[in-house]
Design brief:
The chain is mainly α and about 110 residues long. The protein has four helices and no strands.
């Protein structure tokens, strides 16, 4: 994203100590600033929970499988067509549950 092109395999899996330090420091500073500026952390924490639940359980696993499938040129480690459809349904469910969860969470905080 920053370089304006897709990362190569070497760039995406290896970070130097300096790059890791800068990346972690920026994340820490942003989190610290938000923690200091926001008086009521209820909404940010609720949204974090919604994202973590749906992404970790329903979005990331199918995306990892589809990435591996793409890398191997269509070979999906022995998964049948029906299994691939199932993973698509799981991915759509994850995106839907994340969207509805965010909508519900924001609605509960704006009406209260």
């Amino acid at each position: 994203f920053v370089r304006g092109r897709p990362l190569t395999e070497e760039e995406s899996y290896h970070m130097s100590g300096r790059q890791l330090f800068v990346f972690t420091s920026v994340q820490f500073a942003a989190t610290w600033a938000l923690g200091l500026c926001i008086e009521d952390l209820g909404l940010p924490m609720a949204l974090t929970g919604v994202f973590a639940q749906s992404l970790a359980a329903f979005v990331i696993p199918p995306c990892l499988l589809f990435t591996e499938c793409w890398r191997r040129g269509g070979n999906v480690c022995g998964y049948s067509f029906l299994a691939k459809v199932y993973f698509c349904v799981v991915l759509l469910f994850g995106v839907t549950s994340c969207t509805l969860g965010v909508h519900s969470t924001i609605a509960s905080y704006t009406t209260a």
